[in-house]
Amino acid sequence: MAPPPRHLLLVLLGFLAAASLATLAAAMYEDQVGLADWHQKYIGKVKQAVYHSQKSGRRRVVVLTEENVIASLDLRSGDIFWRHVIEKNDPVDQLSLSLGKYAVTLSSGGSILRAWNLPDGQMVWETNLEVSKLSKPLLHILSNNKVAKDNLVLVAAGRWIYAVSSIDGVIAWEKEFSLDGIEIKQVLQSPENDILYVVGIAGSSKLNLYQLNAKTGEVVKHIQESFPGALCGEALLVSRNVLVALDETRSGLFLIEIKGESISYNKVHLSDLVQDLSGTVKLLPLMSNGVIALQASSTLSLLKLKGIDGLEVIQTFEQPATLSDALTITEKDEAFAIVHHMGSEIEFIVKFTSDVSNEVIRENINIDQHRGNIEKVFLNNYIRTDKSHGFRALVVMEDHSLLLVQQGEVVWSREDGLASILDVITSELPVEKDGVSVANVEHNLFEWLKGHVLKLKGTLMLASADELVAIQALRLKSSEKNKMTRDHNGFRKLLIVLTKAGKVIALHTGDGRIIWSNLLPSLRASKSGEIPSALGIYQWQVPHHRVMRENPSILVVGRSGTDSSSPGVLSVLDSYSGEELNSLRFDHSVVQIIPLTLKDSSEQRLHLIVDSHSRAHLYPRSPDAINLFLHEMPNTYFYTVDIEKNVIRGHSLQRSCYLSFDDEYCFSTKELWSIIFPSDAERIAISETQKMNEVVHTQAKIIADQDVMYKYLSKNLVFVATLSPKATGEIGSAAPEEAWLVAYLIDAVTGRILHRVTHHGAQGPVHAVVSENWVVYHYFNLRAHRFEMAVIEIYDQSRADNKDVLKLILGKHNLSAPITSYTRPEVMVKSQSYFFTHSVKTMAVTQTAKGITSKQLLIGTIGDQVLALDKRFVDPRRSVNPTQQEKEEGLLPLTDSLPIIPMFYVTHSLQVEALRGIVSIPSRLESTTHVFTYGVDLFYTRLAPSRTYDSLTDEFSYALLLITIAALVAAIIFTWIWSEKKELSDKWR
Amino acid sequence: MEKGKGLARRWAVELYDASSSSSHSSVSDPPGFTRSGPDADDATGARQRKDSETAWKAQKAWEVAQAPFKNLMMMGFMMWMAGSTVHLFSIGITFSALWQPISALRSVGKVFEPFKDPRVDTLAPKLVFIALNLAAMGLGVFKLNTLGLLPTNASDWVSSLAPAQEVEYAGGGIPLH
Question: How far is A947 from chain B (nearest CA, A)?
Answer without folding.
Answer: 20
